Amino acid sequence: MNWKHLLMGTATVTLLAACASTKPETAKTAPVDATPKSTAPVDQNAANQGKVAVDPLNDPNSPLAKRSVYFDFDSNVIKPEFKPLVDTHAAYLKANPEQKVVIQGNTDSRGSREYNLALGQRRAESLKKSMEVLGVKDKQLEAVSFGKEKPKAEGNSDAAYAENRRDDIVYQQK
What angle (nearest 5°) sits at the alpha carbon of residue 91, between those of residues 90 and 94? Predict the structure, then answer.
């Protein structure tokens, strides 16, 4: 083989290699998903159209919006008229074991500071025990007394006194 043939062969191979075309890569596109995207479930019931689920604790129309139990003068006995309210809160707490409440016992301004603190504590404990009897766990309930320190109504009228003789059910933030 002479150099001329070797040079011609190399040139031919180089020429063929240079002419060989490679298919250019096409830009890759994301595959198109033809399936419809799901959205939040839609309630098909016409009666529920336009309504948004609200936590019953934040719904002013819920029975749970009422959170005070009132007492007679110098008493820690829960009146029968407040039994449905206690039942409602107890049922909610049983259904939501992660929820906790502080029951705040309050009194009117009559009586000494010590007497009012003790009476407020008895009122809070009375409501706490009522809820425990209904099945609420002890760890969900705390009873404290504010005595006469957190009045709901100012003044020395019978109406103001009655407004201040109460337990407040205060739900704790999660």
Answer: 85
